[in-house]
Structures are given as C-alpha cells and as structure tokens.
Design goal:
By secondary structure, the chain is an all-alpha fold. The chain has helices at residues 2-29, 32-50, 58-62, 66-97, 112-132, 136-160, 164-176, 179-185, 188-196, 202-211, 214-241, 243-256, 258-281, 286-300, 302-319, 324-344, 349-353, 357-379, 384-416. It has a domain at 213-428.
Length: 428
C-alpha cells in the first residue's frame, strides 16, 4: 500500500507544486469575478459527474472478477455519455423557453457543460478500472498529462484573453487528457474485446446492472446529496453574495484544499482499492485496517490546520492584495478541512461493505443544512463571512457523523466476516 501511495502521491505532489507555483500568476491574470463565474460551472459539472455513471463505477473495484468489472466499466461509460447528450437537450430547452436553470448564470459558457461531463465522466470508470488493476504508475502519468494540458490552457488564455472561458477550458483539459493512454496502459480495450466484444450484450449489461442496483438506487442519490452539500456554495454564493465574493470563496477553497488533495486524494484512491481487497479476502481485518489508515490521515491533517492558521497572511502576500478576503475565508474553512482529510479518504467504506443507507441519511441532512444556512443567511441579510462560519459548523458536524457511521460498519463486517456484496448483510 505504501508504494502505491507514494506513486500516486508523487504525481499529486507534482500537480500541487505546479499549482502553488502558478497560483500567484493566475490569480493576477484572472479577476475574482472570473473565478466566481468558474465556480458556478465547476459546481454544475461536479454535481452532474457524481451521478453521471449512476455510481456503477464504484462496482468496478469491488466486483469479484474482471469479466464483471469490464461490464460495469462499459455500462458506466454508456450512462455518462447519455447524460452528456441529455444536458445538451436541457440547455437547448433552457435557451428556447427560458427555463431559468443553473446554466443561465453562465450564459454562453453553459454549452461547455456537456463537453466537461463527457470528458471527465468517461475518465472516471477508466480510472476505477486502473485502480482495480493497481496500475498506480499509469494513473500517476495520466495525472501529469492532465496537469500539463490544464496549466498550458489557463496560462495561455490568461495572457491573451483573461476570462472565465480560460478557466473552464483548462478544467475540461485537466479532466479528460491522458484518458486514452490510461485505457491502453491498463489494457482495458483488449480485455473488453476478449471477454465481451467492444460492447457487452444488452442482457449482460442489464443483469450486471440489476446485481449492483444498490449503487444507482441508494448510492447515487446519496452521492448526489453529498455533492450538493459540497457544491451548493458554488451555486448560490454568486447570485446571493456577488461574483466577487464567490470568487474569493472559490480561491479560499482551492488554497486550503491543497494539503487535502495532495495527501487525502492519493490516500482515498489507494484505500478504496486496498479496502475492497481486504473486504473480499480478509473481512475480519477490515476494522483494524480502517483505523490504521484513519490514524495516518489524522496525523497528516495537521498540515491543513497549519495552512489555515497562516492563510490570512500568506494568501494576500502570495496572490495579491485583492485576495485578502480569501485568506480570511480559508482560515475558517480549514477547521472543517481538517476533518475532510481524515474522513473523506475513508468515505468509500459504505460502498466497500455494501451498506449505503446510513451515508444516504447523513448526506441528505448535510445538503438540507447547507441549503438552509446559505438561504436563511441571505434572507436574513447576513454577510457572506457569517454564512461561511455557519457553513463550517455544518461541515464539521457532518464529518463527526460520518466517522461514527464508518466505525460501526467496519466493526460489523469484522464481526460477521462478510459484506453485503458477497454474502448476507452484516448484522448491525
């Protein structure tokens, strides 16, 4: 596991170092309003992607054999492509009939949403297949390709045509670049052709979809509410508190998330892959494995706290005086990002053990709470900073609830010796 973390962590480290080095340049090329508009695009895209594959991509890693994993991979690709084309139809209806959807805030930029959905959405099942194959080196190389593509576009547009368009195109390139190389490196297409032909027969797709129906029926709605809890600020900060404040919030999140992305991102991918193996082969060891990883994440989370404490001085110094408010916002957000590093890296536990109901309830509660905090704060005339503080409290409470749930699930599996995917559900 350590070698895999190092491989992914090394690639992530390179991307984060490049991001840190280029952040002062990009922050001076683009305005807070540009980042505010981009935050709306990012919220729409990220929320769509959470359910683009109806969460069938989660089954790729936990399925018992490669044949079934390949069917799930192709099923996920088909679903996300259909969502991409469906979003084109929605945007067309919005443009013709003025439905007032979220894309209206983006104007003409909204037409880049379908492109982003397909580019980033198809990459997701390909990456999960690579995780199943433990091709951490191939994932790391893809990460580097995405970095180069993304930063080249953002810098080029920032110099020649600074607007939200440059940030949007860089995000598309950063999510879709290297996808074909990753598929080739993990022999996805040859394996698929050898097992099922290029596209598996409909009966196999349907049978596999039914077997893993918990994923679209429970996990997908749960993941959607989870993403709403994370991205509702991206939807609502701009219309409620202005594009400039939304841009400040987005920059604060981008900066304070660097340690979490660097460590937690690599840890979560490796944990999911390794935990799936432990749950399949040695379920009685799942609880001890979970707590071992949690302790490592808790130790690393001190970096987030350090970043938050210094943010009010470091961010304006590094990015320019116009980002002073982002430093203050980052200070408050750091208190929940500490928990984010520890808990988010372990958030695949419900999928691993096949017990999805508890996470769904927590995610619904968090989405409702975040919505109420932002909307009530706006209606009550509170400042954007007051809403940020309340939002932080909601997110901290959410991570505490998640930790208690995960502890319960792994202990149940360790006692019973089986998961819901490979036997009867463990007794609560």
């Amino acid at each position: 596991m350590l070698r895999a973390v190092v491989a992914l962590g090394g690639a992530t480290l390179i991307t984060q170092v490049a991001g840190v080095l280029l952040a002062p340049v990009l922050a001076r090329l683009y305005s807070p309003a540009d980042y505010g508009l981009f935050s709306v695009y990012n919220a729409i895209l990220s929320t769509s992607l959470t359910v683009g594959c109806l969460c069938y991509e989660m089954g790729i890693t936990i399925s018992k054999d490669d044949s079934e994993a390949l069917i799930l991979t192709m099923l996920s690709v088909i679903l996300v492509v259909l969502m991409g084309f469906g979003s084109v139809a929605w945007l067309g209806a919005d443009a013709l009939f003025g439905l007032g959807g979220s894309g209206s805030q983006l104007g003409s930029y909204s037409w880049f949403v379908p492109v982003g959905i397909i580019a980033a959405g198809v990459y997701q099942p390909v990456r999960y297949w690579a995780l199943r194959r433990k091709a951490m080196g191939a994932i790391a190389r893809t990460t580097i390709s995405q970095l180069v593509s993304s930063k080249t576009i953002s810098l080029g547009f920032g110099i020649l045509f600074p607007s939200a368009l440059g940030l949007i195109l860089s995000a598309i390139a950063g999510s879709g670049a290297g996808m074909w190389g990753l598929a080739r490196g993990t022999r996805l297409i040859p394996n698929l052709r050898a097992e099922h032909g290029f596209i598996p027969p409909f009966r196999l797709l349907w049978a596999t979809a039914r077997k893993y129906r918990q994923l679209p029926l429970v996990s997908a709605p749960s993941t959607l509410f989870n993403s709403l809890g994370l991205y509702l600020p991206g939807f609502l900060m701009a219309p409620y508190f202005g594009a400039d404040f939304a841009g400040q919030f987005f920059m604060a999140v981008s900066v304070i998330a660097i340690p979490s992305t660097l460590i937690g991102g690599a840890l979560s991918q490796v944990f999911f892959s390794s935990a799936a193996v432990v749950a399949r082969e040695r379920p009685e060891e799942l609880a001890s494995f979970f707590h071992h990883v949690f302790v490592r994440g808790a130790t690393c989370s001190l970096l987030v706290l350090l970043a938050g404490l210094t943010a009010p001085w470091v961010i304006p110094f590094a990015l320019g005086a116009k980002w002073r408010l982002a430093g203050e916002i980052a200070f408050w957000l750091s208190f929940y990002y500490v928990g984010g590093l520890m808990i988010s890296s372990l958030s695949s536990i419900p999928q691993v053990v096949g017990r999805l109901g508890g996470q769904f309830a927590i995610n619904v509660a968090r989405a409702v709470a975040v919505l109420l905090v932002i909307c009530v704060g706006h209606w009550a005339g509170l400042s954007g900073m007051a809403v940020v503080k309340a939002y932080t409290l909601v997110m901290v409470a959410n991570y505490v609830a998640c930790y208690l749930l995960y502890c319960h699930l792994v202990k149940a599996v360790s006692r019973s010796g089986r998961t819901a995917w490979h036997g009867q559900p463990p007794t609560p």
